[in-house]
Design goal:
About 25% of the residues lie in helices and about 40% in strands. The chain starts with 13 loop residues before the first strand and ends with a strand.
């Protein structure tokens, strides 16, 4: 005769000559697991964004941030110029740069001082300027020329991706802020939120320990 398992108040019941001994222990373990998962699942996208803003210094501090000045040194390598497939990337040169960034008006000025070693040995200086509607490049002699529309759009997108106030835009997106599917990063699975700004969809991965954005992804068009 077949054996049937019946869950009834956590007690095993005899059916067809057999006793279900483990009904209570299985259901208890299941409830415990669900209870442990519930807090993480209960966090809404807005709660995740609010935690990220708090970790970055708080709402008032970020709303009061209007401009930045950044100085940096960069070194450039080109994997495509290695001597063998998968080999050591070729060193191209060094760059010193200074960024003056008007966060409030969406404008930035970047001064480049490049010391290139490959493929040509040369030193160049120029300045990139972008606004919400246009961009241009000024050479070391003061002459300027317009950027292409694609270059302006890409520069503005990358500035927004790096902006410390990006999470404010996520918060202000209101109904546009939504949960994204879990994302893989460095062998870990992270919760993520997604929102659209100016035609670009940003997916922000949140680090569960620091609460800060761990990565910000966009999809090219």
């Amino acid at each position: 005769m077949p054996t049937t398992t019946i869950f009834g108040g956590g007690h095993g019941k005899r059916v067809g000559g057999s006793v279900t001994k483990y009904a209570f222990s299985i259901s208890a373990a299941l409830l415990l697991a669900l209870g442990q998962l519930a807090p993480a699942q209960a966090q809404s996208p807005r709660e995740l964004v609010n935690q990220a803003i708090a970790a970055e210094g708080g709402l008032d501090a970020l709303r009061g941030l209007k401009a930045l000045a950044i100085k940096a040194d960069a070194m450039h390598w080109e994997p495509g110029q290695s001597k063998a497939a998968g080999g050591e990337p070729r060193m191209l040169g060094n760059t010193a740069l200074t960024i003056t960034w008007d966060l409030a008006n969406g404008m930035a000025r970047t001064e480049w001082d490049r010391d290139m070693k490959y493929p040509a040995v040369e030193k160049t200086k120029y300045t990139d300027v972008v606004t919400p509607t246009l961009g241009y490049v000024i050479d070391d002699k003061g002459a300027s020329k317009p950027m292409s529309g694609i270059r302006v759009a890409a520069t503005l997108r990358e500035l927004e991706r790096a902006s410390p106030t990006l999470m404010l835009k996520a918060l202000d997106a209101n109904s546009g802020l939504r949960a994204a599917s879990n994302q893989k990063l460095g062998g870990k699975t992270l919760r993520a939120v997604s929102f659209n700004d100016g035609g670009t969809n940003f997916t922000v991965l949140i680090d569960p320990q620091s609460k800060l954005p761990a990565a910000i992804r966009t999809r090219g068009r």
